[in-house]
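Reviewers of the previous submission asked for a worked example of the structure-prediction workflow described in the proposal, so we include one complete record here. The input consisted solely of the amino acid sequence. No template or homolog information was supplied to the procedure at any stage.
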Amino acid sequence: MGQVHVGVHLLDADHRLIHHDFARAHLHGAVRPGESADVMMEFELPFGGVPSVLKLDLVAEGVCWFEDAGSRPATIVC
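From that input alone, the workflow returned the following structure tokens.
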């Protein structure tokens, strides 16, 4: 419990939630405050060719998504 991963929410082009827990990626080692880490994720978007948004956030398993604690997630428009 509490292990941290990168999580992805899938949103439509209007930023409405389509899939709350769309993808996860493991962090390879500890990342301290102020540090960064490269993470590789591969997945297929379910609606090929339809604009969508990926909202990336950290998630402490069994505890919370970092956004719920005040962090600002990153977004990628696809």
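The mean pLDDT is 91. We consider this example representative of the routine output the project will generate in years two and three.
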